[in-house]
Amino acid sequence: MKRAGITTVWVRAPSGRYPVWVGSGLLRDAGRRLRRLRPRCRRLFVVSSPRIWRLWGGELQRGTRAAGLRVETLLMNDREANKRLATVERLAGELVARGADRGSLLAALGGGVVGDVAGFLAASYMRGVDYVQIPTTLVGQVDSALGGKTGVNLGGGKNLLGAFHPPVAVVVDPRALASLPDREFRAGLYEVVKGAVVGDATLFRFLEKRLPAVLGRNQAALRVILLRSIGLKARIVSRDEREQGRRRALNFGHTVGHALETLGGYRGLRHGEAVAYGMIAATLVAARLGRVPAPTAARILALVRSVGRLPPLPRVSPAEIYRQLFADKKKQGARLVFVLPRGLGRVETVSGVPRAAVLAALRELPAASSTR
Ligand SMILES: NC(=O)c1ccc[n+]([C@@H]2O[C@H](COP(=O)([O-])OP(=O)(O)OC[C@H]3O[C@@H](n4cnc5c(N)ncnc54)[C@H](O)[C@@H]3O)[C@@H](O)[C@H]2O)c1
Ligand SMILES: [Zn+2]
Asked: What is the distance in A from the centroid of ligand 1 to the CA of 119?
């Protein structure tokens, strides 16, 4: 469905269907659309960070006020270290103090950290209230805001406490990316590359050809990558919301990625950068096991590397990374589950990948990730 440059992509999940609106200027139009979605709602509780609110809150607020919705802000520091239960508890306390009830509508305006926290708050506040995702990072727009996974970190690892709670709508305004620091933008591009490898060979080829335009945030190129990535994720989530089968494919790069994030203490690597290392590691494993043609593996490695220079890996040995893989919740019993590339736009889930192959790939990782 297309109108005035706004495209609606539908997620049709078992728990309900919801629209993902994609187009320039949507921040300003969000209020009117939400009002139509929830005609009886008068107050919108927006979870955001002070910085993001300063940058984009005004625009959201203008349109929302004009639509007759009152905006109330709940601000949080959106460092990854703050993605924890204490933050959810504090925000829930604020909701109580302001009289939010079961019929209240929440919104997450920010990146994945704000989205995951606000989503978990919405999942648990009074046993669940409706919420809207308004992602302002590329990671958020192509990945974290879609699919209904919400949660916070525990000392022992990422996203260990959470819930599936799909939003009632997702608002994707590519203009919000204009203020995104370059490093964050590139971190998001790695998730776009992930989607291409997992299920969209056309997107993969587009990125190979048009990466400079994408990195220059050319609006037309941005629109292509947003729509293709969102379309792919919407299709996968619609078929497998609770990650029993197909959705696992989206964890390509995340097995090693999550381990690196945890070992680096959330400071060293951005989520997308950790996923980039994870995709390189998984591709090396697949190549070692002879499960992907060598030229395909080479193209995947080249595309990941061409996004930019990655910050150094946390200073840990391959053996330590390997051990951390078993602390991750995505293992099954003691068998390591890896999503491995098979071709462009095609991956497979392999359990029981031999330790030797993983360790060898991890040893190769620093050299294979270097752009020089
Ligand atoms: N729920 C899911 O399915 C899912 C999927 C992928 C990632 N995640 C989670 O998302 C988190 C990472 O999210 P992220 O990469 O969006 O990073 P983030 O939320 O940490 O945001 C990155 C930085 O960019 C700033 N920022 C955000 N939008 C901005 C804008 N428009 N202009 C300027 N600055 C802006 C933020 O304040 C922050 O400093 C991780 O916690 C990860 O686990 C969740
Ligand atoms: Zn991710």
From this structure: 13
